[in-house]
Amino acid sequence: MKKLFIYFIFSIFSTVAIAQIDRSKLPEPGPAPEIRFGDAESFTLKNGLKVFVIQNNKLPRVTYSLILDRDPILEGDKAGMLGFVGEMMTAGTKNRSKDKFNEEIDFLGARISATSTSLTASTLTKHQEKVLELMADVLYSPLFPEDELSKLKTQSKSGLALAKNDPSSISSILSGKLVYGSDHPYGETETETTIENISVEDIKSYYNTFFKPNIAYLAIVGDVSLSEAKKMVEKHFSAWEKADVPSFKYTTPEVPSENVVALVDRSASQQSVINITYPIQNHLPSEDFLASRVIGQVLGGGGSGRLFMNLREDKGFTYGSYAGIGSDRLVASFSADASVRGSATDSAVYEIIYEIRNMRDNGITQAELDAAKSNISGSFGRSLESPSTVANFAINTERYGLPKDFYATYLQRLNALTVEDVNAAAKKFLQPDNMYITVVGNGAQVKEGLMAFGEVKMFTNMGEPERLVAMDADVTASGVIDSYIEAIGGNEKVKSIKTSIIESSAEVQGMKLDFDYYYDEQKQAFSNKVSMGGNVMSNTLLKDGKGIVQANGANQELTDEQFEAAKMNMFIFPELHFESLGYTLEVDGIKDVEGENAYKVVVSNPMGSKTINYYSVESGLKIKSESEETGEVFYTDYKSIDGVMYPMKMIIKSPMIPFPLDAIVNEVVFNTTIEESVFN
């Protein structure tokens, strides 16, 4: 009975309390707290190494973060070298082979990694003495093995091959060159040539020049006291010899005097990658740094950003659009980007510029400011979970001359920002009339629409201005095709080929793929079988006006549009049949294809599907073809087969596969009998 009475009284008071809460309003936020993540204690070794210790006994772990404070370096004809330094330093020492070093690290459950400006380690407290020994071994005695550099070069070249075909990578290269310039560390680009130029001696020279204690900071975070840390640091790092380190100065990039439109033409692209960007001055010590974070968050910081809501939710142009204002001691940049369907390219650019201009002219609202503060505060709080974040805070405070309480009062200063503060910063940072508008996409589809924003300047996939090569006025598409036929053997010889079997293969992640092509022009039949380990994975059949793809035990019939687009594959040399098929041809100037001048010929079928072929101006040979459906195919290593030139290597860059395929032709047989069963 007593329990029932107490429950009854409690219910009454609870009901009254609930009734007094107005749930139509969000609760008022409390004051921003001062962040306490441990005070950094510090000392400096005689060699100039500055050390910060932040004791945190919550977990029995310690993290060591060594940072070099050097100026950015222009690598020139050895661009890419800095990316190899860290891997080379941890590829074995004079005391331990790479395998032995990795074995010791794994046994301790620790981590040691390096870059061109850092050396970090993380371990359980009980193993820190041993890990510091290994860390010092990397610092003092890296071996820099030649075979490791060869592997890194090979990997890097493979990555470059992928980047040349990746619209986002192309966009990044183009934006960097426009914003900073090729003669700036942030704008230079590595190539196969610069990678090949790098030697072990270059890496040793960099290491000997820049890995010096007098430009280094060491942050130690975790379960270790100041006295313990000092004892171990003096033991392992006192022998590190200081020396003068060179400094560098660079011209500060400026915004363009008016908007510049830059286009990389990728005829095979179904989407356009848009990046609108320009250089700015903004860094941690800047008075508007926090306001810049808010501007980026409101404009394009996520799903609630203005760009996202406009381009995705309202217009449906893209899956997402984002923006941000960077931070860098030397020079930073503003960037707004989106990947949109090709037909929406100019509309998307218009909307991005509109949002940038609207925020500069009309500012943000209190609701947007509150939401941005919440997002930024949450991100800041989550970052504190990582020991490396706390280490960077300590180093940044010293490195950039920040107030001692810069990070402790971060949220308080963020919370103190007003709408007026942010709007004033927006007028400073947002420059809608002085931007680089970069697009990577199908030039034939998007170029005309982009002219509304200014003169469209063309660039290569390496961010270089496209070379303009004058084309004789009397050059015609049919003339280019006639030259191609003549180059591969002549009209009579080529027309005499009625059947063909072509066998080729490619290696994919250690597995061999076989491609077998069968052509019978008299029957207008074609088969392409793709096999692995002797098993047919897929078979594409074109016959009797129909197309079928056989895969996984099922048949998929091609639509009329798909069949019409695939029909060109029915013929060994499709150029012989363009006229009879009713295709229209257009020469779209002379283009640079991997350093070779080529006539760009746009081939359109009666249903509107397009294939673009490139024929060498010098040799007449077809060196590349591309389409939205199949991507890009490069033709090389032509060889005479029965008096007809045929490409013995094809590099296939398809949107359906994540990396280029090097297909090597193993055998070509012309005018041979093909069994009827092949086309069934």
Describe the fold and architecture:
- This protein has 20 helices and 25 strands.
- 34% of the residues lie in helices and 29% in strands.
- The longest helix is centred in the first third of the chain and has 18 residues, at 2-19.
- It has 680 residues and is α+β, with helices and mostly antiparallel strands.
**Strand order in the sheet with the most strands:** 18-17-16-15-14-13-25-24-23-22-21-20-19
SS summary, helix count: 20
| Major pleated sheet | 13 strands, antiparallel
SS elements, strand count: 25
Helix vs. strand class = alpha+beta
Average pLDDT over all residues: 91
Strand content: 25-35%
Question: Spans with pLDDT under 50 lasting ≥5 residues?
Answer: 1-21
Tell me the overall shape: globular
Using the CA coordinates, give the radius of gyration: 31 Å
Estimate percent helicity: 25-40%
Domain Peptidase M16 C-terminal: 197-375
Domain Peptidase M16 N-terminal: 79-155
Pfam family, one: Peptidase_M16
Protein name: Insulinase family protein
Could you list some keywords that capture this structure?
single chain, alpha+beta, 13-stranded antiparallel beta sheet, 6-stranded mixed beta sheet, disordered N terminus, MPP/UQCRC_Complex, Peptidase_M16_C, Insulinase family protein, Metalloenz_LuxS/M16
Short description:
With 680 residues, the protein is α+β, with helices and mostly antiparallel strands.
Give the SSE layout.
Elements: H1 2-19, E1 41-44, E2 50-55, E3 61-68, H2 82-89, H3 98-108, E4 111-115, E5 118-124, H4 128-140, H5 146-163, H6 167-180, H7 192-197, H8 200-210, E6 216-222, H9 226-237, E7 260-265, E8 271-282, H10 289-300, H11 306-314, E9 318-325, E10 328-341, H12 345-362, H13 366-383, H14 387-399, H15 410-416, H16 419-429, E11 436-441, H17 443-450, E12 456-459, H18 477-488, H19 491-495, E13 499-508, E14 511-520, E15 525-532, E16 535-543, E17 546-551, E18 554-557, H20 560-566, E19 584-593, E20 596-604, E21 610-616, E22 622-627, E23 631-641, E24 644-653, E25 661-670
Parallel strand pairs: 2-6, 7-11, 7-12
Antiparallel strand pairs: 1-2, 3-5, 3-6, 4-5, 8-10, 8-11, 9-10, 13-14, 13-25, 14-15, 15-16, 16-17, 17-18, 19-20, 20-21, 21-22, 22-23, 23-24, 24-25
Helix pairs in contact: 4-9, 10-13, 10-16, 11-12, 12-16
